Amino acid sequence: MAFGLKYTHSFNQIKNYTVDQYKIEIYLEGYVGGEMELTLAKDSIKVSREGDLLQNVQPTTMSFSIKNTTEAQFKEFRTAAWGDYKVILIQDPNGTPMNKFVGYNQSEIYSEPYDQPPYDSALEFTDGLSHLDHVRWDASGVLHTGQKTIIEVLRLALNLLPSPLKIREFVNIYEDSILSATTDSMLNQITVASEVYKEQKQEGGDTIEAAFFANQVIKEILKPFNAHIYQWDGIWYIIRPQEYLDTTMLFREFNANVGTESTVTVDATGSFTSNKRTVTGVNGLSNELVLQAQSSNMEMEVPLNRVKVTYNQDNLEIVNSNLIKNGCWDILSIPNASLPSQSFPEFWTINGSDFTTYQAMNSHLGMIWYTFEPTSQETATTFNSGINMTYSKTGIIISTTDSLQFSFKFNMKWLINLKSSGTSSTSVAAFLNNNLFVRYEVQVKLGAYYLKGDPVAGYSWTTAVSRATFEKIGFFVTGSYTINHDGVHEIVTTLPNAPVSAIVDMDVIIYRPYSNFNTYVQTITTDYNVNFVHLYQRCFKLLYLPSEVAPVDELILYSEIDEDENLEEIEVLHGDGTNSVTVNSFRLTSGLITDTWNRRGVAETEGILQLLLLQLRDLRGDFKRKLSASVIGEFNAFNTIEDTTDVTTQYYINDYEWSVENNEWTLGLLELKTFLNLIATNVSIVGGVLQEESGDLTTNVIPPPSPPQNLMIAPSPTLLVDQTNLNGYI
C-alpha cells in the first residue's frame, strides 16, 4: 500500500513576499483515483508548535477548514483512523518546491457544525511526534538489543511514522576523544544501550518485558543535552537552544534510511551564517519583521534557583551486572512437545544430549538443576567436546579497567557403603578428602579473545582458541564404613580485567564435567557398594565488575534569587545502561565510556549533565524577558528574533502559531543569553536518598565568590548538613 494524492488546494499569501505561492496536498493510504480541488475557509490555514525550554519533544500541527457544499461531504475524515491521510504544505509548488510541513490526520479533533450546508469542517493534522506516545520502540514486537548510536536510536523511533523524514541536527557538543570537525556529528559517534529503553508490564496476569514507547525513547535521548526536536521545512530539526546565538549555526544531516537505520554516516553538512532577524518598521522589504505592539506583551520569567537532576539507571537486562541471562534456570523450555517432561534452560543451546532418555532439569534441595547425560556423566573421566551447553549475547560493552568474576554451583551425590563381607580401608576417605576432583572446562569468548588457564597456573586472555579449567579437589567426608555425600559446592573465580575496551559479542560454552570418581571406585568394588546418584549444576554467572564508584543519583544546582525557591526536577536515564563511570555516561563506538565534553567555541570541559546545568544557568539562571508577540513577516521557526524597541534583546522562538495566508505569527519568545564568564557553581552530588536540608537559610555559612571566577562546575562528594546558604551560587 502507498499514499495516493486525493485532494489539493492552491493559494497565494496576501503580502507578496519572495515566494507567495503555496499548495496543500492531501494523500489517502491506498487511494488510486484522481485528485480533486478543495475550497478552504478564508484565513483558516494555521501551522503551530508548542514548546518550552525543558520540553524536548515539540509537536507541530497544521489545521484548516474545508467547505462542505453537501451534507457530510467530507465525513471520511471523521471516521478515518490515525495516519490514513497525509497532508503536505508546499511552498513555491510551481518553482522550487519546499515541503514546509508533513503531517497526518488527527480524527478525534475533526469537527463540523451539525447544520444545513454549506458549512465549514475543521481538520487538524499532526507531525506524528505525539502519536509516538502510543507506538512501542521495537521491530514488530521484537525488542532491540545491544549498543546503538544515538542517531540509530532516533531514526528507529522516527521511522515508525508513515513517511519518515531526514534529520538535521545542531548539537555542537563533543566528547573530548571523538571527531569534532564542523562536519562531524556527535550523534553517530556516541552509543547508548538498547536495553535501557524497556519496562516490565502486566499482560494477562503475566509480567513481560516491553519496549518504551518511541516518544519516551526520543525524550530520554535528548534530555541530557536538553536538545529540542521539531519539524520545519518537512524535516526534523534537533537543536540545543544555546546554538541559536552562534554567529554560524553548524548542522549535519542524516537521511531517514528506513530499514538501514544502522547506516550512521553523515549525509550532508551546512550552516546558517546569519540566523538573526531584527524587528523593523514597515519598509516594504521582503525581509521585514513588523512587531504589532498593540498585540504584544512582555513579562519577566523568574529564574531557577534550584535544579535537581535525578540520575536513574533502569536496565532490566543487567541484573547485578551478570552478563549471562538465565544462568540459574529460572526460565525453562520444552524442546519436544511429545516429551513435555524433558525441559532445558531458555536462552541456552544444548548439544550432544538426548532428552528422550532423561529429564534434563531436576528439582533438588528446593532448586532447579541441570544434568548432562546422567548415565555417561557417571563414567565421564575425560573431556568431551561434543556434550555442552552454549550461551551467546551480542553488544557486550567492556573496558580494560573493569574486571570479571565467574561462578557456578554444582551438587554431587554418591552413596558408599561397606559390604557385609568387605574390609574397610582408610584410603577411601583419604581419596575423597584429598584427591577426588570434579572438573569443568569452559570456553569464554569476548570478541576475539578467549579465556585460558586453570586454578594453578592462573587465568589470562589470548587470541588463540582456548578453554579455561575450573575445578574442586577434595570433598570433606567422615567415616570408613558408610560414606554418603549430598553437597552443594560453589566455585567463584575472579578473572583478569577485560581484554579490550570495545563493544563485543560474547560466547560461553559449558562442557560436560568429568571426574576421577568412577576410576577410583572401580578399585574398591570388592569391599564397597558404590552408587553414583547425580552431578547437577546451576547458576552460571559472569559478573562484570566496573572499577568506578557507585552511581551518582542527584545533582543540585543553586542560583541566586530574591524570591521564593523555584525548583525544577529533571530525571535522566543512564545512557550507557550498564554501569556508572560518569554521571549519565555514554559510550563511544569503540566501547570506551565517555568522560569530558566540550561545546564548540566555549571553554567548557564538563560532564554531560554539568553541560545541561550550565545551559540552564545561561537560559534560566537570571530574570529573563519573555515576549508574547504578534509579528508580520517572513522567517523560519529556527530564527532568532532581535528586538530593539527597548534594549537590544535576542529571543528564540519558544512556541508559535503561523497564519499562513497572511503570514502573521503569534510568537512566544524567550530571551537568549550566554554568560561571558563561567560562574562558580555549587553542585552537590548525593548517593542514594536525597539528604534533607536544614538550618537557617539566612546564615552565611559559605561566602559567595567575589568577584565571579572563571571556574568550572566542581562536584563535591556529599551535601554538607550546614550547607544551606543559597546566595551567590548558580
Helix content: under 10%
Low-confidence stretches: 677-730
| C-alpha geometry | elongated
Per DSSP, the total helix count is 7
The overall strand count is 49
Query: What can be said about the biggest beta sheet?
Result: 15 strands, mixed
Strand-residue proportion: 35-45%
Mean pLDDT value: 83
Distance between the termini: 56 Å
Radius of gyration based on Cα positions: 34 Å
Indicate the topology.
Blueprint: E1 3-12, E2 21-29, E3 36-37, E4 46-49, E5 60-68, H1 76-79, E6 85-91, E7 98-105, E8 119-126, E9 138-139, E10 142-143, E11 147-149, H2 150-158, E12 167-170, E13 173-175, E14 190-193, E15 198-203, E16 206-211, H3 214-222, E17 228-232, E18 235-239, E19 249-254, E20 268-272, E21 276-278, E22 289-291, E23 297-301, E24 306-312, E25 332-333, E26 344-345, E27 349-351, E28 361-364, E29 367-370, H4 374-379, E30 388-398, E31 403-418, H5 426-434, E32 437-446, E33 449-454, E34 458-462, E35 468-473, E36 482-495, E37 502-511, E38 514-515, H6 517-521, E39 528-545, E40 554-558, E41 567-573, E42 587-588, E43 597-599, E44 602-606, H7 608-620, E45 624-633, E46 640-643, E47 649-659, E48 664-671, E49 683-686
Parallel strand pairs: 1-3, 12-18, 21-46, 24-41
Antiparallel strand pairs: 1-2, 2-6, 4-5, 4-47, 5-8, 6-7, 7-8, 9-10, 11-14, 12-19, 13-43, 14-42, 15-16, 17-18, 19-20, 22-45, 23-45, 24-40, 25-26, 27-30, 28-29, 30-37, 31-36, 31-39, 32-33, 32-35, 32-37, 32-38, 33-34, 40-49, 43-44, 45-48, 46-47, 47-48
